[in-house]
Amino acid sequence: MTFVLIKSMRQILIVASLLAAIVLFDGCRQKERAYFEKEIIFPEEITPEQKIKLSAYLTPTPQQYAWQQLELTAFIHFGMNTFTGREWGDGTEDPSVFQPTDFNAEQWVSVLQKAGFNMLILTAKHHDGFCLWPTKTTAHSVASSPWRGGQGDIVREVKNACDKYNMKFGVYLSPWDRNARSYGDSPAYNHLFIQQLTELLTQYGRIDEVWFDGANAEGPNGKRQIYDWERFYQVIDSLQPQSVKAIMGNDIRWVGNESGLGRQTEWSVTPLQPDINESIVEENKRLGVSPMSEDLGSRKLIGEAKALYWYPSEVDVSIRPGWFYHPEEDHQVKTLAQLVDIYYQSVGLNSVLLLNIPPDTRGQLHEIDSRRLIEFGDYLSYVFKNDKLSDGHNAWRAKPGDFKEFDMKDGDPINTILLQEDILKGQRVEVFKVEGLIGSEWIKLGEGTTIGYKRLIKFDDCTPSKIRVTILETREKAAMKRVGAYFAPAIDDSFNSMPISNNPSGWKVIANDPLTLDMSKTMVIEGFTYTPDPQKESVFAYTVEISNDGKNWKEVRNNEFANIKNNPIKQRVMFKQQVKTRFIRFQSLVGIDGGNAPFAPTQIKILTK
Questions:
Q1: How far apart are the C-alpha atoms of 388 and 467, rounded to whole Å?
Q2: What would the mean pLDDT of 232-246 be, rounded to a whole number?
Q3: Contact 529, 570 (CB under 8 A)
Q4: What beta strand segments (E) does 515-569 contain?
Q5: Adjacent-strand bridge partners of 131
Q6: What per-residue confidence (pLDDT) applies to 575?
Q7: What is the mean pLDDT of residues 476-490?
Q8: Cα 179 to Cα 296: distance, rounded to the nearest angstrom
Q9: Helix 9-25, helix 48-55: angle, nearest 10
Q10: How many CB atoms within 10 Å of residue 388?
Q11: CA-CA distance, 138 to 128, in Å (whole number)?
């Protein structure tokens, strides 16, 4: 085979390894032995079929593998917005506003540890530019606040707590800084940002994840900044080489939504890379890929790619509607059922879950959030500590069509199957199915596409005597690491969700703007849900009123759907206390783009006991 001229020794070595691997694949007498860590750069004359074969031999770095095994990571949004009630500050906030009344980092970490979390990522600086450590780069920091007499250091106290409880620690440093006067003067601001990054990576010991988002809007001077991502990477790699770089980093990618949802087909092997320079931007455009794309690793896409990367997904979502604490959201903390569902759709779909839990103005995780987290951890521990299979830890290799049967232990019911590949030998499974032997018949329990590090399959309760896993399609022989069977008890959310559009029990919509409902009789209502319609402008600010006669109205809610523009998911609103009413009225005050965005009957569900 003839290859194009190679311009660097590194590329020569890569191509030499590729050539050796292709020889092995194309028929050779030796055992497979070539693996490629993190990236493969394809020679121009390689065929699509050879690219697909090689993709099976791409593996994570040790840092990426250690990160994947964490499974549960906590995101802590704490800062100026906690005290102003905003989600995005504008950088003009007075540092004196930042004054936690009973800050306790150990409370955060102890709760998170009880809930099964393995790493904490702290927002060391959000978009408002307020730094949670006493930086030398700006006066807009805790050093200018009255907290701890200006001698406090949030980053230090949180890191110390993590060290005490043996929890890994990461930092989120927002590139967008609405306070820094140099923002928009690209060389000057990049220098400042690298100074901040260097402080965080040299003053606090080991850092295991550095998290960047791609936020890039105007600064105080109205200019946009051009970030020097490659220099940022160099700083991290030189100062904290064990750390993974996330989202706008090239180790960990954003799953593409803030709803807690992974893809049903989630490839860690993908040609996608973060848009950190023009050549990557153009290549992503050529392939039509972005973090939001549904297809990030198909055979067709790989055949068109110039390079592949091990770039696994992180699923971020908040336990509340907002990312920062707001007291009016105390009744909107996600239920246990919602959190468990998110776990299945993140960790159970070959991703790591990054769950945001915002501390309150005391500087502690709120009691409601804490209880919910511990319930969540207890539930997962109960479910997954009792594997119903007797031999699921035996590793095995599978080519297309191969299957393996596993014996059940006690004849107990199950409703969950766990599958794992040994990703140190690549991600290779493309299609699988799971069956259970019930009586004398094999019944299909579930099926899917990718497996990767972990795949969870849910199905109705059943009591098979055996489980059979069939690998239907693969990229080379799949290295199956583990199969497990579990029983997950049903979770009672204690609410009935009644959609207006189904016209339950004689309900009538008597007006559309504002949306007014006559339920024909007095009912006890706990709250409501609102589901945005992607085809129309969503509600941002709203009021909810109740009436027993349809004439005299009482306001029971006046609020906003925080961050709904960036995170257009179903909103759950719980009233501060139950209300008894026959009529209820939903008034949209303003849409997310400033227009008129009335509620529609199809978007509302009433929550009743």
A1: 10
A2: 98
A3: yes
A4: 515-530, 539-547, 554-560
A5: 125, 141
A6: 85
A7: 95
A8: 37
A9: 90
A10: 23
A11: 12
